[in-house]
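Person: At home tonight, work slowly through the protein below, taking as long as you need, and write a paragraph about the fold.
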Amino acid sequence: MKPTVANLISQSRQHGLPALEARLLLEHASGLSRTRQAAWPETELDAAVAETFRELVRRRLAGEPVAYLIGLREFFSLEFEVSPAVLIPRPETELLVELALERLPLDEPSSALDLGTGSGIIPVSLRKHRPQLAMYALDISETALAVAQRNAERHQTPIRFARSNWYAALGEERFDLIVSNPPYIAAGDPHLVEGDLRFEPAGALSDGADGLLHIRQIIAGAARHLQPGGWLLFEHGYDQAAASRALLQAAGFQQVRSWSDLADIERVSGGRLAAS
């Protein structure tokens, strides 16, 4: 007797897997949408599909993130490829995209730079909503850039990608906006060995120092690569807003402030370069 959708979902639930995660994994293993699973729970599945699903369940129960198991994650209403080479997109980063879009004209040409692009969720989301935007994205990781390039192709968003240690590959190029979600977790933070973070690339999570190392570098180099009146916006840790504002002010930025995410945590800080 072949296993059915209902059988497999029930078995995974008995092992403690949430129903939504079980249906996502079954969709990945079988090609059956979650809607179809719910509508026709009596659907029979081949033994090979059932075994693939059970293996995915075992890996999930061992802690592997669902996003890596299925290779996809939604962000800003778009679906992105993800892999262990890049961070898993998180909802709080949508605040950074929203703030950036507010500062980019809708119907006029403009330019933006994303530093440490990872899977490319930020530049792809910006380019998708600003068709005249000249978008440039940098990352030090070749494997991350490969994922980002595939995501740009998936969403038909022309973006220039390059391998670079922050601003190193840019020369004298300037932009209307610079955005970044850099590694900002301090070395030794206990969260690094908990939950999904255990499986994500360590170099994309932590700077190996106090959590502000890369933020300092981004702020220090921004003036050289911003147009007069251009904005710098970056994501940071839950307790780094005050330090980030102080660094921006010390570097001469104006209109410095921090913005809170939906959890009321100051998650993004930024400032504007003085107009000439």
In short: The first helix runs from residue 5 to 14. The CA atoms of residues 233 and 270 lie 4 Å apart.
